[in-house]
Amino acid sequence: MDLKPRNKISTSFSMSGMTDIIFLLLIFFMVTSTLINPNALKLLLPKSSNQTAASPVATVSITSDLNYYVNSRQVKYSQIEYVLRETFREKNVEEPTISLNADRRVPIEEVVKVMNIANRNEWKLILATTAD
Fold this sequence. Notes:
By secondary structure, the protein is of the alpha/beta class. It has a domain at 47-131: Nucleotidyltransferase, domain 5. 35% of the residues lie in helices and 19% in strands. The strands form two sheets. It has a five-stranded mixed β-sheet, covered by helices on one side. It has a two-stranded parallel ribbon with strand order 1-7. A hairpin with a 2-residue loop joins strand 3 (68-70) and strand 4 (73-75).
């Protein structure tokens, strides 16, 4: 009597399932990497060991060559208050919080000018720093 096994074990390896997983991981990492750093300005922030849990509605950035940005849109100093008001009105925010990103080479007078805008309008302001 001739007995042969009906199920043969294949020794070949199919890469189609592995390539599907690789492409899905590639797409996942590409999508999440764009969400990590929405603010593309390169600033050298001062160091601090304190952190806050408040989430800002708008971001004001001051570069070392004294260019002002509101949410990565370049504006003149005289337009900052108007652009912030419009941003808060569009987002329908009653108690807005602003994150101030100032390069550490920026004179303190320029930082205080933006702080005065927030103080005059009774907006909360967070001074962004890097970890100590």
